[in-house]
From TrEMBL:
<keyword id="KW-0479">Metal-binding</keyword>
<keyword id="KW-0223">Dioxygenase</keyword>
<comment type="similarity">
    <text>Belongs to the iron/ascorbate-dependent oxidoreductase family.</text>
</comment>
<keyword id="KW-0560">Oxidoreductase</keyword>
<dbReference type="InterPro" id="IPR005123">
    <property type="entry name" value="Oxoglu/Fe-dep_dioxygenase_dom"/>
</dbReference>
<keyword id="KW-0408">Iron</keyword>
<feature type="domain" description="Fe2OG dioxygenase">
    <location>
        <begin position="177"/>
        <end position="288"/>
    </location>
</feature>
<dbReference type="InterPro" id="IPR026992">
    <property type="entry name" value="DIOX_N"/>
</dbReference>
<dbReference type="Pfam" id="PF14226">
    <property type="entry name" value="DIOX_N"/>
</dbReference>
<dbReference type="InterPro" id="IPR027443">
    <property type="entry name" value="IPNS-like_sf"/>
</dbReference>
<dbReference type="GO" id="GO:0051213">
    <property type="term" value="F:dioxygenase activity"/>
</dbReference>
<protein>
    <submittedName>
        <fullName>Thymine dioxygenase</fullName>
    </submittedName>
</protein>
<dbReference type="GO" id="GO:0046872">
    <property type="term" value="F:metal ion binding"/>
</dbReference>
<dbReference type="InterPro" id="IPR044861">
    <property type="entry name" value="IPNS-like_FE2OG_OXY"/>
</dbReference>
<dbReference type="InterPro" id="IPR050231">
    <property type="entry name" value="Iron_ascorbate_oxido_reductase"/>
</dbReference>
<dbReference type="Pfam" id="PF03171">
    <property type="entry name" value="2OG-FeII_Oxy"/>
</dbReference>
Length: 326
């Protein structure tokens, strides 16, 4: 199954211009209920800004290892900022067709990343290298971070309308923002080592925040698991779109009304070359404010469908999940 059959496209323009907010909110929520993923087009983030961020990302990853390590990710997984070299982070929340998680950890994730957030984040302060190493990098990352936050707020407004809640409902829980901008590069590797499982780009996993906005190049390799059949389906890049997916926290918050769907990155489908090219992606991960405690979203529970979860601290939940992947 191709992604266009599994992951629906939602035109966000009628929400932004106010002509039909309800239909956009309904379509967004329906996609989150059925697959947990949706392509957003006419989302309000200009292609020029996205292209410029990809250009800056490529310039960063073209630096020497020594230069990138001037902004090292701390050893602790609970401080997700700075540069992580290939093989440092290992995602293993979901393991398939293997004896145990320990065996899965023997296989490296072939990717390198740089992560940043808001500058005044006391819990996870940013880690930058000297400005002279790559002039404009810090400013470019921060500007794009805040551009994505504006898109996130509109998505949260639309989602609230889909739930038949006040439009600002979710914004009260996403004020900081306690979010993460991640630049990712998957280095070129022999096709055979990905196909035979010797290496992975990212193993099967689900995200654990509120939601993730993903911008990706056209190389391919991202696959989403069909929640009904269990089959992994290629999710190709659609020009001008943002690929949006719900995270585990939003699924819990919605009393499992919304799906947080498993996905992975492997060799692109129908690859015919001996080497898989570099792949670049830019996920923007949204978290609710760390100090807040949330209960199930109104309307997602009743006497026939009681609450599955107790109120939970956002910070406690997120910190446990961050530590598990590093």
């Amino acid at each position: 199954m191709e992604s266009q059959n599994l992951v629906k496209v939602v035109d966000f323009a009628p929400f932004l211009d106010g002509s039909d907010k309800q239909s956009v909110g309904d379509a967004l929520l329906e996609s989150f209920k059925t697959t947990g993923f949706v392509y957003l087009v006419n989302h309000g983030l200009s292609q020029d800004k996205i292209d410029q961020m990809f250009d800056l990302s490529k310039k960063f990853f073209a630096l020497s290892h020594e230069q990138k390590m001037l902004a090292p990710h701390p050893p602790s997984g609970t401080h997700h900022r700075g540069y992580s070299a290939p093989g440092v982070e290992k995602v293993v929340q979901h393991v398939y067709d293997r004896s145990d998680i320990a065996e899965a950890r023997k296989r490296s994730d072939v990717k390198e990343t740089f992560e940043a957030g808001r500058e005044d984040d006391e819990l996870m302060p940013n880690i930058w290298f000297p400005e002279k190493v790559l002039p404009g990098f810090r400013e470019g990352c921060l500007q794009f971070f805040w551009d994505c936050f504006e898109i996130e707020k509109n998505i949260l407004r639309a989602l609230a309308i889909g739930f038949e809640l006040p439009e600002e409902y979710f914004l009260h829980f996403h004020t900081k923002p306690d979010n993460q901008l991640r630049l990712s590069r998957y280095p070129s590797v022999p096709t055979s080592v990905l196909l035979n499982g010797e290496l992975s780009r990212i193993d099967a996993h689900s995200d654990f925040g509120s939601m993730t906005l993903l911008m990706q190049d056209d190389i391919g390799g991202l696959e989403v698991q069909d929640p009904h059949s269990g089959e992994f389906c290629p999710v190709r890049s659609i020009p001008g779109s943002i690929l949006l997916n719900a995270g585990d926290f939003l699924m819990r918050w919605s009393n499992d009304t919304i799906k947080s769907t498993i996905h992975r990155v492997r060799a692109p489908p129908s690859i015919e070359t001996d080497t898989v090219p570099d792949r670049y992606s830019i996920p923007y991960v949204s978290f609710s404010d760390m100090e807040t405690v949330v209960d199930c979203i109104p309307g997602t529970w009743n006497t026939e469908k009681p609450k599955k979860y107790e109120p939970i601290s956002v910070g406690g939940y997120v910190m446990r999940r961050l530590a598990a992947s590093y």
